[in-house]
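hey so i finally got around to running the thing on that chain from the lab meeting. sorry it took forever, my laptop kept dying and i had to restart like 3 times. anyway pasting the input first so we r on the same page abt which one it is
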Amino acid sequence: MTTDTSFERAKECFILGNAAFESGQLIEAEKQFLESLRWLPGRPSTLSNLGATRLALGRHEEALEPLAQALEATPADAQVWSYQGIALSSLGRLEEAQASHARALEIDAKRVGDWLQRALSLLGLKRHTDALACLDQALNLRPEDALLHLRKGQTLLLMQRPPEALAALQRAVKLDPALHPAWSDLGSLLSELGRHQEALDAWQQALQHGGNQELLRYQMAGEQARLASGLSASETPAHPPQAYVEQLFDDYAESFDEHLSKLNYQGPRVLASGLSGLLNSRPRESAQAGRSLFKHTLDLGCGTGLCATPLGPWTLRLTGVDVSAQMLEKAKALRRYDRLVQADLVEHLKSTPDRHDLVVAADVFVYVGALEAVFEGVRRVIEPGGVFCFSVECIADDRDYALLPSLRYGHSSRYLQRLAEVNGFEVVQLKPGPLRHDVQHAVSGLYGWCVAS
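ok and heres what got predicted. didnt touch it at all, straight out
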């Protein structure tokens, strides 16, 4: 077949591929670009479009090969460097991603999208100052872009520069009143600044413009708790959004242990110290230093593993469950757990085939709220005579539980005793005591030890 014929067939497939891409028929677009390359191998524009199509399909690893081939032929094509940066960023290769966007900007410094994408990669690398400089470059080119002001505000928040962050977020919502992420972040910042009614107003705007309803209503409930004596039971969210808890502790994992140490956190130690008198209800499966041991302990919401050391002398086997992958990585490094599971604790309690003679929940229920499903789940997995111990922040009024201004939950002793009785637990002890210090004041808590019938 002649070269002219090959070129025409390649051109025809290329045009069909572009049309399919523009109409959102990505699989067909990929098929046409591959066919075009069969007729005319190595054509940079076709390779670039194939890479872009695979990006749109979410197949980022597969996008890299045609993009690399295109760059070999046309290393001065800024758009291909940009595509490569996006693919690398999606694969978590952030240093390479920001370098690709930097190369695109060397070719054409007016590419606002590459300034933004480079900033996002730099943020992932925790190079906040460099990210801010990129965002400022983008804003110099497009000063009325609400999204850029939002990203600048978020970056300034990470840099702990609240006045400048406030100005950036306010500018974002002025330019685009429907930009709900900006309203959401603005509400959080106003809350931290003690401007509670303004925070509620900002979150209301976020709700009206399509923000995450579950998260926003949870945050608003906490804010309303600051403005009033307390919410009614019907107004109190039964639990926080799971994504909120997961993100909170993923972000918190690196500094979690150090922070709690400064707060004089003592929940795991107190709970473990109350176990000695309860071992008499367990069969003597093994002994260590003259004591019986629990056979298999379940550490609910194990976090970074703060319970592992105090529980170690009391158990033969230790399983930890937590929703945060980053927390579990820290716990894994301790090498004190026999098994670690990433899961919502209620879902784990409903589905696990394992059975335990000790279940521990240290300072976990402050992020749960309604505990009916937890007690039912613990009853399902615990052996007769097994011990269930936990700590909670306590409330003294007639509510079962309450969302506190800290966005943590408090629980009443009456509620805990009722749940224990309904689920076949004997409350051996429910004693008050400090959980930790917050702003140099002791946080009042309750420590509970129950035995399953």
